[in-house]
Specification:
- The chain is an alpha+beta fold and 118 residues long.
- It has a single domain, classed as HIT family, subunit A (2-Layer Sandwich).
- The chain has three helices and five strands; from the N terminus they run αβββαβαβ.
- Strands 1-2-3-5-4 form a five-stranded antiparallel β-sheet, with helices on one face.
- The longest helix is centred in the middle third of the chain and has 18 residues.
- The model has no long low-confidence stretch (mean pLDDT 96).
- Bound molecules: adenosine monophosphate.
Length: 118
């Protein structure tokens, strides 16, 4: 069982922000911004590649609520899901990083060669 499934079933603790029948939001153990919350579907989905669009419908308002609860909705925030190896996904259970509480840096490649993706 993956670590986020263990959080869902109570085998591992979490610093809970919000929960309903379908989703759970808790603070990231190693925050990368002053506010860093993870939002997950309770039902295991490996990544964004496998998620049912219907799940995303509920996820949208849930994330908006989380931003409101932690007080970053008006100041701004970033919503990210890492997918697979190149995306840097470490936990193979779909999760959205909700980051805020400060002006967030926006990294980029100086030498990005995009021609093969055009
Ligand atoms: P990712 O690299 O996108 O898969 O992100 C995984 C995130 O999960 C990282 O930011 C970790 O800090 C976070 N994380 C791992 N284990 C836990 C945990 N038990 N509780 C809260 N956050 C966790």
């Amino acid at each position: 069982m993956c670590i986020f499934c263990k959080i869902v079933n109570g085998a591992l603790p979490s610093n809970l922000v919000k929960e309903n029948d379908e989703f759970m939001a808790f603070h990231d153990l190693n925050p990368k911004a002053p506010a860093h919350i993870l939002v997950i579907p309770k039902q295991h989905v490996d990544s964004f590649n496998e998620v049912n669009p219907q799940t995303m419908v509920g996820m949208t308002s849930f994330i908006q609520d989380v931003a409101e609860i932690v007080g970053i909705k008006e100041s701004g925030y970033r919503v990210i899901t890492n997918v697979g190896d190149n995306g840097g996904q470490e936990v193979k259970h779909l999760h959205w990083h909700v980051l805020g509480g400060a002006k967030l840096p926006w990294g980029h490649f100086d030498d990005a060669e995009s021609s093969k993706f055009l």
